[in-house]
Each structure stands twice: as structure tokens, then as C-alpha cells.
Amino acid sequence: MPFTHCPTCGGEMVTKEVEKLLRGGVHAAVLHVDAEVCLRCGERLYSMETVRRFEQIRGKLACEDLDDLQPIGRTFRVA
Ligand SMILES: [Zn+2]
Fold first, then answer.
1. Ligand 1 centroid to residue 44 C-alpha, Å
2. Overall pTM surpassing 0.70 (yes/no)
3. DSSP letters for 19-43
4. Which letter does DSSP use for residue 51 in this model?
5. In this structure, which residues have their CB less than 5 angstroms from ion ligand 1?
6. Cα gap 43→7, rounded to integer Å
């Protein structure tokens, strides 16, 4: 990763596993990925590979191509 300091606030960045929620169409998926996280403001930076993976999963959700995805529950909208 090229960043050792946060591009937003200049704080120190550390590598952490984070939970990311992706949406595509009416579906959503949760995954755990490594990100560079700012200790000061919480800004997250992802690697190019991770961003590409996000795009792939968003595309699958939007196209209802859900065979590789494991359902873990239901998502509700609060009126
Ligand atoms: Zn920051």
C-alpha cells in the first residue's frame, strides 16, 4: 500500500480487517477484507484488487448471479 499516512487528515494508517457491506440491485453482501484504516479519522483505503472484488460482487448482486454467495439472513427496510 502506498499510504502510510491518511490523505484526508494526515493520521497514521494501520492495516486492519474490516467488514464491508456491498449493495447491488435489491441485494446486499457482507465481506471481510483488509483495509488501511486511519487511526485518527477512520478513513478506509482499499487495494486495487479489493476494489475490483467489490465491483465484481456488486455486479453479481445486481444481475442476481447469486450462486457463489451464501445467504446469511434477511435484510429489512424500516418504514
Ligand atoms: Zn485520517
1. 8
2. yes
3. EEEEEETTEEEEEEEEEEEETTT--
4. H
5. 6, 8-9, 11, 38, 40-41, 43
6. 9
